[in-house]
């Protein structure tokens, strides 16, 4: 049987993870959005398995970037804020523990379990602010580094197992709900598109790494 991982361009996957990290973890930067437009990122985004979310997300991103100019920057910043940061309660809170814990707290048991997992695998995060490690944008940072290593070490079974556990036990349990809320409440085509494309990318990783989704109760 052919291993689906043998056909993957892990360098391409790393680039997607890195971009999603920057777009989901911090407020948008006008220069980055301009670079996405100039480099035709929307037009060259991989179709993967041709799922509807991918198609709709790519179409929305193409339309947004084709019409992008700096006059839209404030609107984009406000959209990121209301989705992921505040003021007030964000519409798509980006922290896993809020979805996985009954009391919907930051730094709850699922966060501590992730911290233990990272410590056991010598994963360190370069945080500029004190932030819970289960921010969805930080997961894409870890995937960026891990997929980059896998591009150089395609036979590293321990690394493949690390990615499998990271996805199956710590991210995929709640990320779908977070990105669903982001797509639902996005007020710009840009974040609507990014939410759909991030979810589609995670679905592709689920397929590629042959993961069986864990059934968990979500509280949001």
TrEMBL record:
Cite the entry's keywords alphabetically: Chaperone
Which InterPro entries does its entry note?
A: DMSO/NO3_reduct_chaperone, TorD-like_sf, TorD/DmsD_chaperones
Instruction: Extract the Gene3D superfamilies matched here.
Output: TorD-like
Q: What is this protein called?
A: Molecular chaperone TorD
What species was this sequence derived from?
Shewanella carassii
- Organism classification, top ranks? Bacteria, Pseudomonadati, Pseudomonadota, Gammaproteobacteria, Alteromonadales
């Amino acid at each position: 049987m052919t291993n689906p991982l043998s056909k993957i361009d892990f360098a391409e996957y790393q680039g997607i993870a890195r971009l999603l990290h920057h777009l989901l973890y911090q407020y948008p930067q006008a220069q980055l959005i301009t670079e996405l437009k100039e480099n035709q990122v929307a037009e060259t985004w991989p179709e993967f398995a041709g799922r509807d979310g991918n198609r709709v997300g790519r179409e929305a991103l193409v339309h947004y970037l084709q019409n992008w100019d700096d006059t839209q920057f404030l609107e984009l910043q406000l959209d990121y804020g209301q989705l992921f940061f505040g003021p007030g309660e964000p519409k798509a809170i980006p922290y896993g523990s809020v979805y996985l814990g009954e009391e919907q707290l930051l730094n709850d048991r699922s966060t501590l379990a992730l911290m233990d997992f990272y410590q056991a695998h010598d994963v360190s995060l370069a945080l500029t602010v004190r932030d819970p490690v289960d921010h969805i944008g930080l997961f894409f940072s870890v995937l960026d580094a891990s997929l980059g290593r896998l591009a150089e070490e395609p036979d590293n079974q321990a690394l493949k197992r690390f990615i499998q556990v990271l996805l199956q036990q710590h991210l995929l349990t709640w990320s779908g709900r977070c990105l669903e809320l982001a797509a639902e409440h996005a007020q710009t085509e840009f974040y609507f598109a990014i939410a759909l494309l991030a979810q589609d990318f995670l679905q592709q990783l689920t397929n590629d790494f042959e993961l069986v989704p864990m059934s968990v109760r979500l509280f949001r």
